[in-house]
Amino acid sequence: MTDPVQPGELRIVPANQATWQDLVAIFGTADYPFHCQCQRFKVSGWLWRDTSLDERMAMQRASTACGQPEAEHTSGLVAYLGDEPVGWVAVEPRLAYPKLRGLRVPWTGRSEDKDDDGIWAVTCFCVRKGYRGRGITYPLAQAAADHARDQGAAAVEGYAMVTEPGVEITWGEVYVGAVQVFAEAGFTEVSAPTKRRRVMRIES
Fold first, then answer.
1. Which pTM does this prediction carry?
2. How many angstroms separate the CA atoms of 166 and 55, rounded?
């Protein structure tokens, strides 16, 4: 199916209320999401050289606390269409992503306190194969912002990709989310550190 999914059709829950098997189904068994396991901004060193897939999967499982609804913390949200797990978004306090500190994208042109524990970040979207291109990232972005603010975030940031009509972009590039996805959720641009990247932010 290629029809757009309406926001009301999705049920989006914190990942600790989902099962690990549901998350495995979303990340698949082959392409970039599977190999990265949403750890790019968390690992020390080079993602592919200094960690193994098994280590990244273990890190993801630990941080999501899947299947542990009583857990005090989780690292993202899971979307369901009916009973099928179809999407994931990573959202945590910005300090949970140590690799962000060394990138110029979040900081260029801004006098931002890197140690501000009140700022949350949306760093990754993953839509299950077979459900991509149906607009699922839009309600995921809105849910991520709502979740962060419910958890006490003073503001929420994303580090979005600029997309152009008619220009093909690979899923591996747009995992951070497209500018229009954040804009529709109420985020506004606060800086343009590169030609293709925008820092998007929403205040609580």
1. 0.94
2. 38
DSSP 52: -
Give tens-digit pLDDT for 130-165: 999 999 999 999 999 999 999 999 999 999 999 877
d(CA 22, CA 17): 10
DSSP 119-159: EEEEEEEEE-TTSTTSSTHHHHHHHHHHHHHHTT-SEEEEE
Q: 94 by DSSP, 3-state: which?
A: helix
CB count in 10 Å sphere of residue 27:
23
Domains, the chain, in order of start with CATH, read 7-203 (3.40.630.30)
Query: Tens digit of pLDDT for each residue in 3-41?
Result: 899 878 999 999 999 999 999 999 999 888 999 999 999
